[in-house]
Amino acid sequence: MAQCGMTGRAHDVKDGIALDSFLLASQTQSLREKMEHIDSIITDSKKSPLLSEQSSGDKPSVSINHVDKESSSNNISSKDSDKESCRKQKEIDDMHGSIKPLVFGREEVRQDICNMLRAPSSIINKNYSVIGIHGISGSGKTTLARHVCDYEKKEGKHFSLIKFIQMSKTFSVHDIFREITGQDRKDLRSLHKELTENLQGRRFLLVLDDLWVDDGNQKERDILLDALNAGDSGSRILVTSQKEDAAAALGAQKQISIPDMKDEDYLSLFMHHALHDAVDDDGKFGRIGRKIAEKLHRSPIAAVTVGKRLQKNKTINFWETTANLDVLNETMGALWWSYKQLGADVGRCFEYCSTFPKGYKLERDNMVNMWIAHGFVKTSNETEELEDVGQLYFDELLTFSFLQCGDPIIYSQNHFTIHDLLHELAERVAGSDYFRIDVNGFDPRSGISPEVCHLFIQTYDTADTIGKIPELENLRTLIIEEEFRREEHTSFDGVLSHELVEEKLFDGIFRKMRKLRVLTVGIKLYRQNQGLSISDSIGQMKHLRFLCFTGISKGAGLPSSIKLLFPSTFNTLYHMQILQFGFCFKVSFPEDIASINLIHLRMLGLDFDFPYIGRLTSLRWIPHFHVRKEQGYELKQLKHLNSLRGDLKILGLENVGSKDEALEANIAGKKRLTGLFLDFKNSCNPDVEADVLEGLLPRKDLEKLVLRHYRGPWYPDAPKNLGELFLFRCSRLVYIPEGSELFAGLRSLGISQCTWDALPDHMERLTSLKDLRIISCDEMELLPALPQSLENIRIKGPNMLWESFQDEAHVNRQRIEHVPCKKFNPPITNYGIKYEGW
């Protein structure tokens, strides 16, 4: 069980003398007592006079929130600039994720660890050995471990496979296998078999970051180590943890305690974040910065969070005021001070993150949509979009390190996590409105407060847990991460049965929890009957705005999907904004769904199959639109969906008969679209396909274009400034026209399963091209002259091309000599492309 330690709502009250009380407590109490005192005063605080003090001359803004939102409002007022902003933001996010952070004062310990990793192991009967790094939260263990990984990848000689995994508080061998193999839908036994096969003959380095263990996961640890023993001799597992016993549980023979940073190294780290590239001509900031750094007692996380906040307000008055705050003497106090600089709305969004357990992998769009559902995101004018402002909130939390960017998850973009200490801070400021039930369950005698507003259930397997959920009538958020175990189908009366207990549970939720705004349910697919009927009582959930079902198949031979049956009362949920259903679900709506009244629906994240989607004019995103020769499924249904953003996939384009029909989709009017996926799957008249394609393509500012099964005799010269082009089983692009706007800004070109004998002529005209991928184009023999701008080339599968690269004198080999990064996969590989990312 986890419950936030404070009571009350911090956003509804003012400061008073809160900070003064905290400063006095900091001088007279132990750390535990100080933290208890923080609990008692944050409830009464939102803004301190000391924290908002400004000089009368400069009047700097303490928080960047207002400034950023104001500047962003100007961007949002123009849809064209919005689109350009989205494109640039995507590019920035992609590039930012690849930037390696500077590391201060860790070179000596990094070298010690690398020496341990490469030293011969004394263990005879195992192909791996374990090394541990332990230290308190915020001491820099993760940064050090990443530094080690980056060094080994750059050196590139000792380990053929390197993988870094951020662990959650719950040890799950299934999740670890999923991340290593890149497979999301397989059962544990299949993953174990695949991993052991692909590790054979490979010396690997696996980092398990922030590992937690307990007696209950001993069997899972044994399964993990059994699979890893398939690696080559000399393989290593590097474990970071807060305590020595975590690495010891995996058999670590060598462990090091992460040392404190030296004073000058720590000052360099702090000033790097506080000043960045600014010039300190007279040294005033340096002198004040040293005083602030001394207060932080060499805590790396405090240096980063406080430093980044100071960077946004580089005025002497603000720095001097900060230097005099005794609240900075403790790490948690420093983090609390940084939190206080956030705007009220951004602060509330950060508090909401405490809904999720420590180490939980957050997805940006999902979090923003939840914030919107709760009304946390505010716009200042009619031209602003809630999603755009929510992204600004998220980016502010990321900028000031309240959120951290993690590695990409399977089938997803980057995920984000919260540092353990910042998660603890979020719990404290969030108060008793938030409650979690973790894998250990909870003591029913302690109960759940009937006033709780946000509940996260990581697992439940008792009648007490199940029965209490519908009683929480004040809930605004209910997230059920796990479902029942296969062996324990527990009903409300505590009797083990094979009934579909979810149906009873949902009916209770829908009838009693009418204030609910966010409902997310994860279901393990183990049942024989694969239908789940949603109760008519869902129509009573008038405030529900976010509804999500996720599912994971468990066990060999189990079904891969479940059918969700929705009643006609679902149509009355007028405030519904987000519908998300994972790949494991087939959704069935009532026959009268054509009269759907979900006029506020913003995102339809499901494989939908109902007509007249054009009535849902508030839609911002849909997974795809499938054109049919049936009423209600025509391409013109897209005509008025002009708020669509991001990528749009259109299938069944062989059912469109002319350019005029294509123009009815009004793609050009959807100013926030950044990508198009167009599929002409079945045979059609090639000339008609070319006309349809020309009618669909906007004239400018499309970032990404994917064409499947396009057989047209020509490629329209549109849109301008295209960044990415991917052609799958398409007719040959004969040559690159001189001065073509279609290719002027092309950075990435992919060609897959095309029956081309050569790339287009005049490839050298693609002067912006950086990435080229050729996949399974078996008839291709020769490469033309390639542009000098090319940085990456990846070729997989063409037999003749593959063979030509084995000959250093071959013209194909010579034409790629100038390309820095080259990756080749033979037509048949033992390991598959998914393992290249190690």
From TrEMBL:
Region annotated Disordered sits at: 45-92
Q: Which GO terms describe its biological process?
A: defense response to bacterium; innate immune response-activating signaling pathway; plant-type hypersensitive response
* Domain of life of the source: Eukaryota
Protein's recorded name = AAA+ ATPase domain-containing protein
The chain positions of domain AAA+ ATPase read 127-262
Q: State the organism of origin.
A: Eragrostis curvula
A GO MF term: ADP binding
List, as start-end ranges, the regions of compositional bias called Basic and acidic residues. Answer: 79-92
Q: Which InterPro entries match?
A: AAA+_ATPase (IPR003593), Disease_R_plants (IPR044974), LRR_dom_sf (IPR032675), LRR_R13L1-DRL21 (IPR056789), NB-ARC (IPR002182), P-loop_NTPase (IPR027417), WH-like_DNA-bd_sf (IPR036388), WHD_DRP (IPR058922)
Compositionally biased residues, Polar residues: 51-64
Keywords carried by this UniProt record: Plant defense, Repeat
